[in-house]
């Protein structure tokens, strides 16, 4: 006798083997509620449940798979395609769509799984002047520990607020390129800020850029404070350098 049959007759008075009527076992089987499978499916496949399960597992979540294209090992293998993939516009487009779908609360998990995304997300925030995102990143990891010349990037985009934000939080990624960029933009306030708070200074090329773009106040400041001077054939040298680095300058 199967278990279902035993359970169905557990309250009956025992009978002899020959007196027991034949029983249709199919009728004794407990009917499974029609909704049990659908309820179970809804629970196990819910986004909250899947997220909780995934948090205890290794591997890459589905929403993070598109970012594998930025894996440095893959980029090195792709060679010539690397520059096309690593454009700021491409990174920004992918990251913006992802943040709209998952919000910044998912960044910690992203960084745990794909460590190189720290650099790319920070670069995107600096390049596109997203201070709120930078502030969120600073709560997840100290921006001072981030490798890369992000102060140079902030100066390149001519955003003093972002540059100040990074400097005040201890980020030290800065070279003479920062003040050179500030001079090119004619941003005297940024030039003064870098001069008073940092020691990298600028190059003679920064003075040349300020002069070529008619930023006389900046050019005068650089000379008056001994930060740069006109070198021999400075104009020809600057024009050759600008041509070789176009469209950057």
UniProtKB/TrEMBL annotation:
Pfam families: Ank_4. InterPro entries: Ankyrin_rpt (IPR002110), Ankyrin_rpt-contain_sf (IPR036770), SecEffector_AnkRepeat (IPR052050). It comes from the Eukaryota. Gene3D superfamilies: Ankyrin repeat-containing domain (1.25.40.20). SUPFAM superfamilies: Ankyrin repeat (SSF48403). This is Uncharacterized protein.
